[in-house]
Amino acid sequence: MSIDYSQKIPNNVHLNDNKTLQRALEHWQPEFINWWKDMGPDDSQNFDVYLRTAVSVDPAGWAHFDYVKMPDYRWGIFLNPAEEGRKVNFGAHKGEAAWQEVPGEYRSNLRRLIVTQGDTEPASVEQQRHLGLTCPSLYDMRNLFQVNVEEGRHLWAMVYLLHAYFGRDGREEAEALLERRSGDADNPRILGAFNESTPDWLSFFMFTYFTDRDGKYQLCSLAESGFDPLARTCKFMLTEEAHHMFVGESGVGRVIQRTCDVMNQLKTDDVAKIRAQGVIDLPTIQRYLNFHFSVTMDLFGADVSSNAATFYNTGLKGRYEETKQNDDHQLTDATYGVLEVANGQLLTVQAPYLNALNEKLRDDYVADAKGGIERWNKIIQKAGIPFTLSAPHKAFNRKIGPLSSAKISPSGQVVSEGEWTHQHLHWLPSVEDRAFVASLMGRVAEPGKYANWIAPPARGINNQPIDFSYVRFN
Amino acid sequence: MTTIMRQHLIDPEICIRCNTCEETCPVDAISHDSRNYVIDAAKCKLCYNCISPCPTGAIDSWRNMPADQAYPTAEQLLWDTLPGQIALDAPAEVGAGGTASETPADVERIAAASTAGQGGAAPPPWSAAHPYINLYGIHNPAVATVSGNFQLTAEDASSDIRHIVLDFGNASFPVLEGQTIGILAPGLDANGKPHHVRLYSVASPRDGERPKYNNLSLTVKRVTEDHDGKPARGIGSNYLCDLKKGDKVNVVGPYGTSFLMPNHPGSNLLMICTGTGSAPMRAMTERRRRKFSAGESLGKQMLFFGARSPGELPYFGPLTKLPREFIDMNLAFSRVPGEPKRYVQDLLRERGGDVARLLRDENTYVYLCGLKGMEQGVEEAFTEACRANGLDWQALRPQLLLQGRYHVETY
User: How many CB pairs under 8 A join A and B?
Assistant: First the structure.
């Protein structure tokens, strides 16, 4: 399945055979480029960036590296190869042949799923557009831009589905994806976390670790969809998403490494002394972690949700690793534990499984996210420092669903309004914390040089040395 | 005899558990638990499908292992870090002290750094001769006698490069082209410890600098400044460059089981080097030249050799006298007054068509030796030469490595 790069829009979907669709997408393409120039990475359109571009969707073609100017990046449409005889694997239609066209009765729900997913992609590019100005190294700047162009490609993936399968409605939704703006009071992005700002690199690393991991779980669920073009699109997007989480996990890990090194040099855990050396103290890292973890928890939606039940029952969105689950894949009589606050305590109560699917996905996510936190802790242990990072309780600092009305501590205790007010500065980054982190940000853009607050990576990209010129300025 | 395998492993410190490799593997050789992702050596077919999709590079980890001692997955699941390369070779019976010595830690460290660019040592060519290694260790070095020390660079050149011939008398010190030996410089360092072992590539063929003599030669550049250009006196190189005929030298080794030449008829050598990186190329070329003079039919020899100027190119005189039909020679000079700077990668690009033709031939073996900085430029030149000639270097490179056809030694 090689990709046809001779086309205006690189693709492996035979776009050439469908002139109407090709014209519609070629009409959208300049609008996308305009959006990229307006809202994409700031002041960097002329840089040569050592980027990975997919040249085919088979394993050998995923990772082709070369210098590219970002506006010339070949955004295109790539679907995983079709699986012969694929079926709908869950819900009421289980066992039927997977759909190659949108079933009429599910049209609006499917469109809503695709638009919601699609909206997050340009949103994160907008959130991160100023970070290039304060990159801690060329290596990190290159990783940021790689994440950005791939988010742009993910938007293409969703826009293709809208154009190809949803006619005029789809085209209008595709326009709207370029019109909403992250954080805009009048025309914001759809999901809350995508209207938060990403003001500094610690936030960026936390975002790519925690929030992009939500993306992984949403894509995994959509990759199970009975609507085959959506499943194939999402499968290919997942290969790109892995890089984003790598940026997050290794980024936070390197911040921790540097802090531990300085703590050992100074033989201190005094926050003021550590900050005076220009590195980020571990308690501040924990507060950033709490913030990004809790904001991401909300992205999974309400704990009990009839929409989730409908999406599943109608075969549109499955569970994480649906086909590896050992049950009937219809879940009509099954139950699943969800949280409730009763008598000043958090209780787990059983809800119909179909309605609790958001919670199920959230739980799968939490287990995965905790794995990386443990690997960060290994860095701290190796340095011999008695400090442990931990994920807050999943009910902590929630802003949507029934838990949003309660105040819950990171350890999962229900606390009073007064105690929350008193304590929350120990739990979430304060204005001072953010100002301190912001004060460390300044551009380091010489090959092989790394900002003082972060350790160099263990390996370069594509086996290149860590002092490689990952970005060339012109 | 146990065969050596190149075992494919995942570095647990770098892996982020994204599952892409497990998803990609066509033979389900990759699995995981809550801690590590691991590869079953019995199932892995070395198809390389998992290498490029890995976002971290953790998947590109290799250890040479006796085939019957490959790390089982159960053991890999317990790792926090990747184990180092184990010393592979069976005890040799010909060591001067009676027992074989272990590879000194210094030697392992240098060897690991010099092959890092290609992800660790590749297996040797299938037709390589079997190398002897570790015959002499720090505690039982061989004693060689200096039988010659000649300046290779012009008097007015900015560097002093020397051709030093060591004679082993009656001691057994068998070497192959591409192997290295260690020199123990006398005296103590600033901390009162013996100096670290200094490694040098052998510049002569297996049958001696002078055929049928028990001697070998080294190409040594006198180090007078460090990597940043600050004055610094290299311990090993100054010791060697100052040696006089008749002086005794403590030698350890030999080392190297990977950077070896093929011996089968029709095998081609594509050699790229700068400065004293020419030593192993000179050894291989001289081996082939002797066969050529004896009328044996050979594969092709193509050499790309870079230096600042002709006066600083070791062996410049003898090299230019080699017949065209024996070797396709390409010399690049970066500091000739009045001429544009040319580097080996520029010549590689110019000769892209011929380079690609050689790369396409499964009997071609590629050798790269010189300063670390050249690796990137050469890789880029290969990428371009391949692209312009219908080959994909990114796809070809892992195949070459797997087949022992691409060898990098940079420092």
Answer: 66
